[in-house]
Specification:
Elements (H helix, E strand, L loop, with lengths): L20 H9 L1 H11 L21 H12 L4 H15 L1 H8 L15 H27 L4 H14 L9 H29 L2 H31 L1 H14 L16 H12 L4 H14 L10 H22 L6 E4 L5 E4 L10
Antiparallel strand pairs: 1-2
Bound molecules: fe (ii) ion (2 copies).
One fe (ii) ion binds next to helix 8 and helix 9.
Length: 355
């Protein structure tokens, strides 16, 4: 369920989606609304946390003690936690692909690179906040001394090199539905890794994951807000876009990761994430339900026949995914170059990290 390739096992090269001029007008008309909300959706740089706030201070006299305390705490992490943390870090590190994608959407572009338009300020501000996530997790993992950084860096290199195709073309409606979903998914995943770290006795990683999950929550709120406004301004097209995006399915951003050896590394990472309960098929269903509720899909009225059919499809969708999620189970074991080919057992049903 989490490996959304088409029947040929590859993402389509060409997107069929082209944004209409009416949609473009809606997006342009939202500039004032975005401008008014930017202050609460992005944190001022001076008030933001930075990766160094949570890493040993290498300029301090006692840097050796700081590093050894750091490594001692990280010694409590299990291989399962390391693998899901590495996968999440790799996902964050492919940020260049996500900014490129955002900047491709009609009406959202930053034409000069320093444009003062509210959409351009949002996309640069969002990218700048996100950039700290990969930086912090990368440095954290490096300092633990518990993972094969070269194998991980090779995986990031391949992922950015292979790209990222959400099948949303240049359509900001589909794009904002995708990001609303995906920010919520990353929030869930980081939060759950944090809970697992705490249980293992690594409170420091719990704190780090909590901070990152907090950013993801704010970003989720932003994209849902943009989309709520689109539902208000262009209801029928918005509901049709939501149904279309759900039919295309939400492709995981790190789908095309590769470590240079293991063709199914993403599938294995997804399986471990499900097995330990960090991000599961049940979460996929719950996110759909949360978005259907947030955008008040069931209450939309006066829809065309096609839009009413999309509404009905969306209102029953979470239940269908929940049924599928009940049938997910695992067997065997998987190994990862990231942790020097150590094996992780997959036996049993998907787990749940209760918070
Ligand atoms: Fe992030
Ligand atoms: Fe994010």
């Amino acid at each position: 369920m989490m490996n959304h390739k088409n029947e040929e096992g590859r993402m389509p090269d060409e997107n069929q989606v082209n944004v209409s001029s009416a949609q473009f007008e809606v997006i342009k008309s939202m500039e004032g609304f975005v401008d008014e909300n930017l202050g609460s959706l992005l944190r001022p740089v001076g008030e933001s946390w930075q990766p160094s706030d949570f890493l040993p201070d290498m300029t301090a006299e006692d840097w050796r003690e700081q590093v050894s305390l750091f490594r001692e705490r990280a010694g409590a992490l299990t291989d399962e936690i390391l693998v899901v943390l590495v996968g999440d870090m790799i996902t964050e590190e492919a940020l260049p692909s996500y900014q490129t994608w955002l900047n491709r959407m009609k009406g959202i572009q930053d034409p000069t690179g320093t444009s003062d338009s509210p959409w351009a300020r949002w996309s640069r501000g969002w990218t700048a906040e996100e950039n700290r996530h990969g930086d912090l997790l990368n440095k954290y993992l490096y300092l633990t001394g518990r993972v094969d950084m070269r194998a991980i860096e090779t995986t990031i290199h391949h992922l950015i090199n292979n790209g990222f195709n959400t099948q949303t073309g240049d359509d900001p409606y589909l794009g904002f539905i995708y990001t609303s979903f995906q920010e919520r998914a990353t929030k869930i995943s980081h939060r759950n890794v944090g809970v697992m770290a705490k249980r293992a006795g690594e409170e420091h990683l719990h704190k780090i994951c909590g901070l990152i999950a907090g950013d993801e929550a704010r970003h989720e709120k932003a994209y849902k807000l943009f989309m709520s406004k689109i539902f208000e301004l262009d209801t029928a097209r918005a509901v049709l876009s939501f149904a279309r995006m759900m039919k295309l399915k939400i492709v995981m951003p790190a789908l095309l990761m590769h470590d240079g050896k293991d063709e199914s590394i993403f599938t294995k990472f997804s399986a471990v994430a499900q097995k330990v309960g960090v991000y599961t098929a049940r979460d996929y269903a719950e996110i759909i339900e949360a978005l259907v509720q947030d955008w008040k899909i069931a209450a939309l009225q006066g829809l065309s026949d096609a839009a009413a059919r999309a509404q009905e499809y969306l209102c029953g969708l979470s239940h269908r995914y929940m049924k599928l999620a009940e049938r997910v189970s695992f067997s065997g074991s998987v190994k990862f170059s990231w942790i020097y080919d150590r094996e992780i057992a997959l036996l049993g049903d998907p787990g749940k990290v209760s918070t």
